[in-house]
């Protein structure tokens, strides 16, 4: 170091410059680190959002039995995560055809559901082989993948919203085959297609990265698994329903069989003593003088024996095997004879018949249908106030099935009893056996038809028998 201190000054300046440069380096390094940190934080945020969405998707679709609903949720979720503005989801139907199931477009634009269905209704007989997610321009994917027919129908579906054919060709497109295994040719539950509407993509400033595509592949597997479970769930539900139906039918059949057996035994045991009583009463009637109380008593015994006999007849009818022997018969004529038979018992009743349509020749067991109609008309007469009209309507319904209605002006059937009135032995009448309507129901069902109860506009009851036009399969 010399006396004027120049060297000292120079070296201090140099030292300062060196320190300054080092500081500069440090600052640059710090900025770079912070930038990296920011980027990885953003990436982390994105990954968390996706995991969160995946998780939410799994929760949302658990227990859904409809593949369409699952694809709706999947399309909505991917729409929220990626900047596409059109989506079409296809589902594989039984028989292996891909059919459009869900259409989505940016909010504010009505999803062109109808158009998509029309455009894609017939194109997709054969399933594509690929199972990996594919991303590129529509043109590129059409040339390099087996999704070409699918992409064409997507173009057609969205054609009205697309700016120009050139823009459409450049539209960024993501095809997501929904497969649990993801290997070429393996199981396929459906395909999701996402697009931008024409112009270039603003994919958060960048195109989907390898990570994005990997995530989409993972998600596609999860959607496929959910769709598979939903199909299994639906099958299971259907099986349960069928099982419950079969069980209900079996219980009903067994109950009726047991009732039938009991009825047959009772009827047989009652009919013989009843015959003896009737004979004895006839003899008594001849023996006692025409005047006096005894005659009145005998009349009561005779009437009550007649009623018992009617009950026994009902029971025997109920116990009879119910296999119809159908012939081509005119239901209108059957109804006429039923009305005649009721008039013999109730000469005061106002029963009229209207016929409409071609019900003249149906395949029916005339005896069974006549008995059923008699039961309905007698019920109507007993429920109606004196002189109130009862209408029997016979019509050839849709598909030439036969419809018979019996309408009265009585009080109707309370809603709480609407199902019970068809049960055997259910009655609200002191002198009823409660078999009338169960015989009606059995006759209708033996023909493959049904009987139902409705409210008449007047407040009375309308019983409707519907019979198919074809003979019922023999059980
Ligand atoms: N047209 C009707 N209006 C109001 N209630 C009715 C009518 N038809 C049937 N019901 C109700 O349904 C019940 C059951 O009818 P169902 O014909 O099976 O037996 P029932 O008439 O009581 O006896 P039966 O065996 O002698 O016919 C009746 O007791 C009555 O309460
Ligand atoms: Mg009755």
Give a topology summary.
Elements: H1 6-61, H2 67-81, E1 86-92, E2 98-105, H3 113-120, E3 134-137, H4 138-144, H5 148-158, H6 165-170, E4 172-178, E5 190-195, H7 210-287, H8 293-319, E6 327-329, H9 331-345, E7 350-356, E8 362-364, H10 366-383, E9 389-396, E10 402-407, H11 436-446, E11 450-455, E12 461-467
Bound molecules: adenosine-5'-triphosphate and magnesium ion (MG).
Structure description:
Its EC number is 2.7.13.3. It comes from Sandaracinus amylolyticus. The strands form three sheets. This protein has a five-stranded antiparallel sheet with strand order 2-1-5-4-3, sandwiched between helices. The chain is α+β, with helices and mostly antiparallel strands and 475 residues long. It has eleven helices and twelve strands. It has four domains: 42 residues; 176 residues, 2-Layer Sandwich (Beta-Lactamase); 62 residues; 141 residues, Heat Shock Protein 90, CATH 3.30.565.10. It is elongated and about 170 Å long. 29% of the residues are buried. It binds adenosine-5'-triphosphate (ATP) and magnesium ion. Magnesium ion binds next to helix 10.
């Amino acid at each position: 170091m010399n006396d004027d201190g120049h060297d000292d000054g120079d070296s201090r300046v140099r030292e300062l410059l060196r320190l300054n440069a080092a500081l500069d380096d440090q600052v640059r390094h710090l900025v770079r680190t912070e930038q990296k940190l920011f980027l990885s934080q953003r990436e982390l945020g994105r990954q968390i959002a996706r995991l969160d969405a995946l998780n939410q998707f799994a929760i949302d679709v658990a227990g859904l039995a409809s593949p369409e609903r699952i694809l709706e949720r999947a399309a909505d979720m991917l729409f929220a995560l990626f900047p596409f503005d059109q989506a079409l989801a296809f589902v594989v139907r039984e028989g292996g055809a891909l059919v459009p199931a869900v259409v989505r477009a940016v909010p504010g634009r009505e999803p062109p559901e109808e158009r998509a269905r029309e455009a894609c209704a017939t194109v997709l007989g054969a399933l594509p082989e690929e199972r990996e997610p594919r991303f590129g321009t529509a043109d590129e994917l059409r040339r390099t993948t087996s999704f070409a027919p699918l992409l064409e129908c997507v173009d057609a579906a969205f054609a009205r919203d697309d700016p120009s054919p050139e823009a459409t060709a450049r539209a960024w497109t993501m095809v997501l085959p929904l497969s649990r295994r993801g290997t070429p040719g393996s199981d396929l539950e459906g395909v999701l297609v996402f697009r931008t509407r024409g112009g270039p993509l603003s994919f958060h400033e960048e195109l989907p990265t390898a990570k994005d595509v990997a995530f989409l592949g993972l998600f596609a597997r999860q959607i496929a698994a959910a769709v598979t479970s939903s199909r299994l769930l639906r099958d299971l539900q259907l099986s349960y329903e069928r099982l419950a139906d079969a069980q209900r039918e079996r219980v009903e059949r067994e109950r009726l069989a047991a009732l039938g057996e009991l009825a047959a035994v009772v009827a047989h045991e009652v009919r013989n003593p009843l015959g003896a009583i009737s004979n004895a009463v006839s003899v008594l009637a001849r023996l006692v003088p025409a005047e006096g109380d005894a005659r009145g008593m005998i009349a009561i015994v005779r009437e009550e024996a007649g009623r018992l006999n009617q009950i026994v007849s009902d029971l025997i009818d109920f116990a009879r095997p119910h296999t119809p022997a159908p012939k081509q018969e005119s239901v209108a004529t059957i109804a006429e004879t039923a009305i005649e038979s009721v008039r013999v018992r109730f000469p005061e009743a106002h029963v009229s018949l209207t016929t409409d349509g071609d019900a003249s020749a149906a395949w029916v067991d005339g005896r069974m249908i006549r008995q059923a109609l008699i039961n309905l008309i007698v019920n109507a007469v007993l429920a109606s106030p004196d002189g109130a009209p009862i209408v029997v309507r016979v019509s050839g319904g849709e598909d030439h099935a036969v419809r018979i209605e019996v309408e009265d002006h009585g009080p109707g059937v309370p809603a709480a009893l609407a199902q019970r009135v068809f049960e055997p032995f259910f009655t609200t009448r002191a002198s009823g056996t409660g078999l009338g309507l169960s015989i009606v129901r059995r006759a209708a069902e033996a023909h493959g038809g049904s009987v139902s109860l409705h409210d008449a506009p007047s407040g009375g009851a309308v019983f409707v028998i519907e019979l198919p036009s074809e003979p019922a399969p023999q059980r």
